[in-house]
Design brief:
single chain; 166 residues; seven-stranded mixed β-sheet; 7 strands; globular
């Protein structure tokens, strides 16, 4: 059983460890250097002001994953938020991500009722993430070829769009 809740400052070390795992081992993020404690604190504090920053906590107290929403682009006319989710590697394919992301979708709309939808930016080689987002109702919206270069190769990214019902 997992509990989805607002992330706390005490969770940030565990959240950073999960994030750094993906920085080191995947193209799920284009960051190439580990996220420092200061960077994670800054990200947490800046997102939490206006958007949800959630943690999935296992019964043992261990953080199983995290998800947050953030401003999509700077001009104030945009009515979209960008979503982010990462799970601890041992928590993948256990249904935690679906529960965490469903809550993120609802909480983002609650905190930012003027939003019309959400955007997810996904590396095209990450087919699991594409399937995950499509299961949540995100639709493919476009592709940027050779958008990033990591691990000695170019990577294409796609955008997936979730439209809130009126």
């Amino acid at each position: 059983m997992v509990r989805i809740r607002t992330a706390l400052p005490a969770d940030l070390d565990a959240i950073r460890e999960i994030y750094n795992y993906y920085i080191r081992t995947s193209t799920a993020t284009f960051l190439e250097a580990d996220c420092t404690p200061e960077e994670m604190t800054e990200k947490y504090e800046s997102q939490l002001r206006d958007y949800p920053f959630l943690a999935a906590e296992e019964e043992t107290g261990e953080i199983a994953g995290f998800a947050y929403a953030s401003r999509f682009r700077m001009p104030s006319a945009y009515r979209l938020a960008e979503t982010t989710i990462y799970l601890s590697p041992h928590c993948v394919n256990r249904g935690i991500g679906l529960e965490l992301y469903s809550r993120l979708i609802r909480e983002t709309r609650r905190k930012q009722p003027e939003l019309t939808g959400l955007v997810a930016c996904i590396t095209l080689e990450n087919q699991a993430s594409i399937r995950f987002h499509e299961k949540q109702g995100f639709l493919a919206a476009g592709v940027l070829r050779k958008a990033g270069f990591k691990f000695g190769r170019f990577c294409d990214v796609g955008f997936w769009h979730y439209l809130y019902a009126d």
